[in-house]
Write a structure and sequence with these properties.
Shape of chain A: globular
Largest interface: A-B, 38 and 42 residues
Membrane topology (chain B): Multi-pass membrane protein
Order of helices and strands of chain B: HHHHHHHHHHHH
CATH class of one domain in chain B: Mainly Alpha
Structural class of chain B: mainly alpha
CATH topology of one domain in chain B: MetI-like fold
Organism (chain B): Jeotgalibacillus alimentarius
Number of domains of chain A: 1
Pfam family, one (chain B): BPD_transp_1_N
Helix content of chain B: over 70%
Radius of gyration of chain A: 24 Å
Number of helices of chain B: 12
Structural class of chain A: mainly alpha
CATH class of chain A: Mainly Alpha
CATH superfamily of one domain in chain B: MetI-like
Keywords (chain B): Cell membrane, Membrane, Transmembrane, Transmembrane helix, Transport
Order of helices and strands of chain A: HHHHHHHHHHHHHH
Number of strands of chain B: 0
Helix content of chain A: over 70%
Largest sheet of chain A: none
Distance between the termini of chain B: 8 Å
Strand content of chain B: under 5%
Distance between the termini of chain A: 23 Å
Oligomer: heterodimer
InterPro entries (chain B): BPD_transp_1_N, MetI-like, MetI-like_sf
Number of helices of chain A: 14
């Protein structure tokens, strides 16, 4: 009896001596759904980035003899209308989709954080100018302008680079706003005043003192962004304005379903990318939820 | 309140001008000659082409061309589609009702589903029904709309044959009859559900959490102590407080619907603005492209304005000035 009643206190004591990061890590590791999702996402990432070592089939070779074959031992998920192995394309496509998602997320978070933290820290006229600019970018309907921009640059520069640049250029506004509001609240604390008064340079105050305290928000935001940007890439590719058709990506593979013959009679061509895309987004969302929960000091788990 | 609204509307004008400038420059930067469609393709004499370009004002300096274009907007002249050879205004007016119909149906379906599921889950949290709704929500948030659309067409149109997968109405029916409207509703049902899936999921989740949170507040305890029936507490006392934050979502929905409509209309080959936009990009029909881009940007601005204003209307604690 004594032991049972003492238990909650004991665990309470244990968390007292832990750093916020250690508490968050422990909470996250105990979250089953988030852990399963992380494991799944990691597997997808590793397998698709090791695609050349996993399968030996050629993705670009058109094979008329093996057009639209149903799944079999030789072709696990069948072949598409050009006779290319769907499973192999799925792996290579995952590589492109995840790469675009990661690159965009990195750029967006980097740029949004820089703009948001500068606006939040300096305030005044710098803040007004930067935030009006952010509002300006946020007012563009995302999909419309991505399509227009990628049409302009089509063929001028490498298609993948342009796609990443265009998506990133139009998506950083949200991060900038959130980081700014967090920095605004955080800089009112006395330790910032202390840092400024002992002569810390603004760049040092931002990087060393302010950013670590808003990092948890940025991490959670970037998970949500990652999922959203993968969806944006595949949606654009589906419409034919994303990744060039010559490069397999999950969105490009899905665009085969625009032909009603493929859609109704050959589900093995479009269903695998659709399912893997959905499950990947789902697992990223679960990881995001888990992280949010882990960083939230009020949640008990 | 009124002062704030007027100030915001005036503040929109420079933003719109700035956007119009960006749209114009982008259209100029797009590959191909944006006026080449207006020149008679059967006459390829270089001198004729040069003459036409001069007459259509294509050789004028960029600022002159820009002001001519914007000036036309104020006079209700939106240019002529280079592909369809009709005024863009007519082209848009023909498609706009379809898109508005789709957007409104999508909102109505979203509200009905979200309220039904959110209220149920909020009243009976942590039960089987709540968990089922929670699972559905996760799916709604995770499945990209175009994948949902593809699956919907595959299952409901091809395998079950319940719902048509293209067009906005059965072309054999007479406009104005009851069957005509029934057919329109039938055609719009699936695109509207797919378009509203994301909003439905977030509304449901929000409503559920808000109802659970409100049900722990003091005014609910007081109402219970007075002997108010549970159903009245939930339907009147709690609902009134939980609906308020939802109202502000409406403005953001306008922006989401615009982007969503482009993909959804294309997949369901629904003849609306989104489809017209994509076809104008592929056909290099720049006058149409510019007008639609301006229109969608303006709508996004209005959506954000509505969100901000509603925020102040429903919650007097937020001071707008």
């Amino acid at each position: 009896m004594v032991n049972v009643t003492a238990d909650p206190n004991k665990s309470q004591e244990k968390t007292i001596n832990m750093s916020p990061w250690a508490i968050a890590r422990r909470k996250f590791l105990r979250n089953k759904l988030a852990m399963i999702s992380s494991f799944f996402l990691l597997t997808v990432i590793i397998v698709s980035f090791l695609a050349p070592y996993v399968t030996s089939a050629d993705i670009s070779k058109v094979n008329i003899m093996q057009m639209s074959l149903e799944p079999s031992n030789e072709h696990w998920l069948g072949t598409d209308k050009s006779g290319r192995d769907v499973f192999t394309r799925l792996l290579y496509g995952g590589r492109v989709s995840l790469l675009v998602g990661m690159a965009c997320t990195t750029l967006v978070v980097l740029f949004g954080t820089i703009v948001g933290s500068i606006a939040g820290f300096y305030g005044g006229i710098v803040d007004s100018v930067l935030m009006r600019f952010t509002d300006f970018v946020l007012n563009f309907p995302f999909l419309v302008f991505v399509i227009v921009l990628s049409t302009i640059f089509y063929g001028l520069v490498d298609g993948l680079t342009i796609l990443i640049a265009v998506i990133s250029l139009l998506s950083w506004g949200g991060v900038a706003r959130i980081v700014r509001s967090k920095i605004l609240a955080e800089k009112e604390n006395e330790y910032i005043l202390a840092a400024v008064s002992i002569g810390c340079k603004p760049s040092k105050v931002i990087i060393k003192h302010l950013l670590p305290n808003v990092l948890s928000t940025i991490i959670v935001q970037s998970t949500i962004l990652f999922a959203g940007l993968i969806v944006a890439e595949s949606g654009l590719s589906y419409l034919g304005f994303g990744v060039p058709q010559t490069i397999p990506s999950w969105g490009n593979m899905l665009s085969a379903s625009q032909e009603s013959d493929v859609l109704s009679n050959k589900p093995w061509i479009w269903m695998p990318p659709a399912i893997i895309l959905t499950v990947t987004i789902l697992s990223i969302n679960f990881i995001g939820e888990g992280l949010k929960d882990a960083f939230n000091p009020k949640s008990q788990r | 309140m009124l002062k704030y609204t007027i100030r915001r509307i005036i503040g929109m004008i420079p933003m719109l001008l700035l956007i119009s400038f960006v749209v114009f420059l982008l259209a100029k930067a797009m590959p191909g000659d944006s006026l080449s469609g207006e020149i008679d393709p059967n006459n390829t004499d270089p001198q004729y082409i040069e003459e036409m370009r001069e007459r259509l004002g294509y050789n004028d300096p960029i600022p002159v061309q820009y002001f001519r274009w914007v000036g036309g907007f104020f006079q209700g002249d939106f240019g002529t589609s280079t592909r369809y050879k009709v005024p863009v205004a007519d082209l848009v007016a023909e498609r706009l009702p379809n898109t508005i119909f789709l957007g409104v149906s999508s909102l109505v379906i979203t509200y009905i589903l979200a309220f039904a599921m959110g209220i149920y889950a909020g009243r009976k949290p942590y039960t089987l029904g709540d968990n089922l709704i929670g699972g559905l929500n996760y799916l709604g948030l995770a499945i990209p709309s175009f994948i949902a659309a593809v699956f919907a067409i595959y299952f409901f149109s091809f395998n079950l044959g319940w719902i048509p997968y293209s067009g906005s109405v059965d072309p054999t029916l007479q406009p104005g009859t009851f069957d005509y409207w029934l057919s329109r509703a039938h055609h719009v049902l699936m695109p509207a559900i797919v378009l509203g899936a994301l909003a439905t999921a977030s509304y449901t989740q929000f409503l559920r959490n808000d109802i659970i949170e409100n049900s722990r507040k003091d005014f609910v305890r007081t109402a219970r102590a007075k002997g108010t029936p549970t159903s009245k507490i939930y339907n009147v006392h709690i609902m009134r407080n939980s609906i308020i934050p939802l109202v502000t979502f409406l403005g953001f929905d306008i922006a989401t619907l615009i982007s969503g409509a482009i993909i959804t209309e294309t997949i369901f080959t629904y003849p609306g603005i989104g489809q017209l936009f994509l076809s104008s990009v592929t056909n290099r029909d720049y006058p149409t492209l510019m007008v639609i881009t301006m229109m969608l940007s303006a709508l996004t601005l209005v959506g954000n304005l509505i969100a901000d204003i509603l925020y102040g209307v429903v919650d007097p604690r937020i001071r707008l000035d």
